[in-house]
Design brief:
Number of domains of chain A: 2
Helix content of chain A: 10-25%
Distance between the termini of chain A: 18 Å
Oligomer: heterodimer
Largest sheet of chain A: 11 strands, mixed
Helix content of chain B: 10-25%
Number of helices of chain A: 9
Strand content of chain B: 25-35%
Shape of chain A: globular
Largest interface: A-B, 43 and 38 residues
Radius of gyration of chain B: 22 Å
């Protein structure tokens, strides 16, 4: 654990089942009532809907889940909330409540605070950016559920021109059988600002849980954001992660989603290039085993000329796991000189796993370069033989090849410490951690 | 190229097919569709009872099935089923010799060059005028080998033992709304049977022609290639320009038995107010091969996704597709590859060109279910956009279960490179000629897969379309 957190003024909040820690302002409560009505009005997903094609709708049964209660042993959760060593700030939320917040390492002017506090203290900012993008990829109903049940979350605002050198770490915990949590991360990067955020999603126990999260990233002109979502829910968690990213002129966003856990994980990523020279990099890695399912839908929406986007999603599928990838590159009228790329690679490791890919293109401008690719294949026998010839058992050789498959993606992440951290997580998940 | 200089719209030359004659139809089922229309068609054609029943069941399915509007073009909503004429013909029996064909119909087909084509190299030809085959002939040499090449009506009456076994088996009636509609009112199309081991040297050919306004053509083609046989079939389609929309909705079923090969070539050049909604599927048994070569130049909206079900080991399926979408046209084409046995291989190559306000769409499905080994699929789709209002979409769906299979899909969208055009202009070509050459280069490798006559024709068509592209 880092020194920064040990010295942090840990704020333990009073136990409360009914009311959230600070409480939303009344105008937000009204929004929540409207969202509740909208949620009830929306039809449940149907496979006839293209956005839910191939989806396992039986996995979406929410009837057994209960509201999350105040977590037991908050100190131990805080103590366990460490990933990277050196961080600029750290925030710990569990069961929809803030447990700890340390912002000492942040430059003056950078805001990192609970959402409910931000709704009162920074109302204009909150109103402008909170869930401001439409949910286009099928989970509108679940986004409304999220909005209606939201109790807290993280808001990060980096003012124009400021650079935060060290990463900011945010933890979202779920604890208790059948608990439901609504993690929310809202990041607003001012013009020419720069920041790296690691958003960690963890289960305190191996019990079934429901997580329905939203993360919205807003990049002003010339901003640079690295956003890493490390999803380590228990293998019995049903999770939704609904993301939107808006990239203005000459700004660059790099977002990586590492899916290590979850029984059924639905991830929706909607990236909009709204200014010339905007760039969005969208990465995902999912080592899947058991009967886990990852259902990912993405949209690279080019609304401005001269912008670029690059998507690379990697899945390794073992046992009876299943993956769905549906991606769309949309080039709007007038978005000339767009350069968009999209690739999904499925490494199939068992006879009972299944990979579904639906890479799509919709092009309404003529001067563009758009390519997409989808591959599904198995481990190369020659590579395995190479290991065997050097005395490495076949089973370990397979794991090393899968590890290598994911490590190539990590090379595209900025920051040595961050890369090492992610690399260790991947190796640990695959059981090939190097001996210390 | 700049986004400021707008390339002028390109006019498409379809003058070859744009003519029509007034014909007095002996049989006319009238406008609109009901059980009575179906009884009328069955009475006129002298259908056996099981076909009459088949049509009526299909009609009910047609009414039940929704339009595929959740994913398909909204333009489908503009089809008014009540305004369509479902059956028109001048009499039953197709003529065997050119001289017997009625004068107006003969003029139509002469303009399309049918007897001339036949003299040149075709093994057999059948020409359909609205609902029924007007002319059908097969060269004696091919007939002696036991090849059957007749209209679907004649096939079902004279060869029921083969016809009934496979009819409606590759594409079930309820596959989609339009296959149900076809099953209810089908008329015309070809029935082909190639006996075991017979390799038909020259292509068999069919022409489809819509001559009447508001007419729907619903031909039904069934080709059965028995063990070890080989056949190539070509179809061409034309229609004059009418004021109102016309519907063409065919069903084509291919059956390639063990070791057989079927190649099915389509050059579709319907006029720009035809809704072309076609269901095509082939069944490939052990070591068999089904190859669709599909070229879509005409129509207002085409929705066509030729498919191959690879049912036997080592079966192969292939779709080669070229689409050219001009002003106001939407070419929604693609392919379906269903792997249902080990070691099956499929290949899809699709190239599309969008001109003016044209829109081309690729929609694909590749399915490799559990417990299959050694299946391979390769998909490539490339799109070329010519003008700034042109549009292209790609929507593939690839589903792979289990290891031991390999799938790859690639697609790209690009524009003709400025350097290419500049290079050619430097050497004295006009911009239009350079564009035309570049487009021809883009599709050249696919065009070469067409038989010579067609590939020459296609190149010429593309040149015509490019004519006048610079004002």
């Amino acid at each position: 654990m880092s020194a920064a957190l040990e010295n942090a003024p840990v704020q333990i909040l009073p136990e409360s089942h009914q009311s959230p820690p600070v409480g939303w302002p009344s105008w937000f409560r009204e929004l929540q009532c409207a969202a509740q009505e909208e949620f009830e009005r929306c039809p449940a997903p149907s496979r006839k809907n293209e956005a839910w094609r191939y989806s396992d709708l039986a996995a979406l049964d929410l009837s057994s889940f209960l509201p999350a209660t105040f977590p037991d042993g908050p100190e131990s959760l805080i103590a366990a909330s460490c990933g990277l060593g050196d961080v600029a700030a750290r925030m710990v939320l569990a069961n929809n409540r803030l447990l700890a917040l340390d912002t000492k390492g942040l430059p003056e002017g950078v805001l990192l605070k609970p959402l409910d506090v931000a709704a009162r203290e920074d109302e204009a900012l909150f109103r402008e950016f909170f869930m401001a993008q439409p949910v286009e990829l099928g989970s509108h109903r679940f986004a409304e559920l999220h909005r209606s049940r939201l109790e807290s979350g993280a808001l990060l605002y980096v003012p124009p021109g400021l650079e935060v050198d060290l990463p900011i770490e945010i933890f979202h915990w779920v604890q208790g059988a059948h608990a439901s949590v609504y993690p929310h991360t809202l990041i607003i990067c001012g013009e020419r600002s720069k920041v790296t955020v690691v958003d960690s999603f963890r289960s305190a126990d191996g019990k079934p849980a429901f997580a329905c999260g939203v993360n919205d990233l807003h990049l002003g002109a010339g901003a640079r954001l690295n956003y890493i979502a490390v999803q380590e829910w228990s293998d019995k968690t049903l999770a939704f992660h609904i993301n939107s990213t808006t990239v203005a002129k000459d700004a660059t966003s790099t977002a990586l989603c590492a899916n290590f856990g979850g029984a059924f994980v639905r991830g929706e990523s909607y990236s909009r290039m709204i200014g010339e020279g905007a760039r969005s990099e969208m990465f995902s890695l999912s080592p899947l085993d058991g009967s886990r399912q990852v259902d990912q839908r993405t949209l690279q929406d080019h609304a401005a000329p001269n912008a670029s986007s690059d998507l690379l999603y990697l899945n390794a599928l073992d046992d009876t796991s299943r993956s769905i990838f549906a991606g769309l590159i949309k080039v709007q009228e007038g978005a000339h000189r767009t350069d968009a790329y999209q690739k999904v690679r499925n490494l199939i490791l068992s006879d009972t796993s299944e990979a579904n890919s639906m890479p799509g293109l919709e092009i309404l401008a003529d001067d563009v370069r758009c390519t997409h690719g989808a591959t599904s294949g198995e481990i190369n026998e020659e590579e395995l033989f190479y290991f065997e010839a050097r005395g490495i058992p076949r089973s370990l050789g397979r794991k090393l090849i899968v590890n290598g498959f994911f490590q190539t993606l990590l090379e595209r992440i900025e920051g040595c410490a961050l890369r090492t951290y992610l690399s260790r997580l991947v190796s640990a998940k695959l059981g090939v951690s190097p001996s210390e | 190229m700049s986004n400021t200089v707008e390339k002028p719209d390109i006019a498409i030359d379809r003058s070859i097919g744009d003519f029509r004659y007034d014909v007095n139809y002996e049989f006319d089922a009238g406008i609109g569709l009901s059980e009575r229309t179906i009884d009328y068609i069955s009475d006129v054609k002298g259908d056996p009872d099981w076909i009459r029943q088949f049509r009526k069941d299909a009609y009910r399915k047609f009414l039940e099935k929704p339009m595929p509007t959740n994913w398909a073009s909204k333009d489908l909503e503009n089809i008014v089923f009540e305004n369509i004429r479902y059956y028109l013909s001048q009499g039953q029996q197709p003529k065997r010799s050119w001289d017997e064909v009625p004068e107006e119909v003969k003029r139509t087909f002469e303009r399309l060059g049918i007897p001339e084509q036949e003299r040149k190299f075709l093994a057999g030809v059948e020409a359909q005028f609205d609902s029924e085959a007007a002319y059908s002939n097969i060269k004696a040499a091919v007939g002696q080998q036991g090849v059957i090449f007749v209209g679907s009506t004649e096939g079902l009456q004279k060869h029921p033992e083969i016809f009934r076994k496979w009819f409606g088996k590759v594409i079930p009636t309820g596959d989609n709304k339009f296959s149900a509609l076809n099953s209810a009112v089908f008329s015309g199309g070809s029935f082909i049977y190639i006996p075991p081991g017979v390799k038909v040297k020259h292509p068999l050919q069919a022409y489809f022609r819509i001559n009447a306004e508001n007419f729907g053509q619903f031909e039904r083609t069934l080709i059965i290639a028995d063990e070890g046989s080989e056949v190539t079939y070509m179809e061409g389609c034309t229609a004059p320009k009418f004021e109102t929309a016309t519907l063409h909705s065919a069903v084509v079923e291919l059956v390639a038995l063990k070791g057989a090969k079927i190649q099915y070539i389509t050059v579709q050049n319907w006029s720009a107010n035809v809704f072309n909604l076609v269901t095509k599927r082939g069944l490939a048994m052990e070591d068999a091969e089904v190859k669709w070569i599909d070229c879509n130049i005409g129509s207002r909206l085409t929705m066509k996704y030729p498919g191959v079900v690879m049912k036997g080991r080592r079966a192969r399926g292939e779709v080669i597709s070229i689409a050219l979408a001009g002003d106001g046209q939407h070419q929604d084409t693609g392919a379906k590859m269903i792997h249902a046995a080990d070691d099956t291989a499929s290949n899809i190559v699709s190239k599309s060109i969008s001109l003016g306000t044209g829109r081309s769409t690729y929609r694909g499905l590749v399915h490799i279910p559990k417990h299959l080994k050694g299946c391979k699929n390769n998909t490539e789709c490339d799109a070329l956009l010519i003008n700034s209002h042109s549009r292209t979409d790609t929507y593939p769906a690839i589903s792979v279960r289990g290891q031991g299979n390999a799938c790859q899909h690639e697609a790209s969208v690009s524009q003709i490179s400025e350097e290419q055009i500049f290079y050619m202009q430097q050497r004295g070509l006009s911009e239009a000629a350079a564009m035309s050459l570049a487009v021809n280069g883009f599709v050249n490798d696919l065009v070469q897969q067409f038989p010579m006559e067609y590939s020459v024709e296609l190149k010429r068509l593309i040149e015509l379309e490019m004519e006048g592209s610079v004002g």
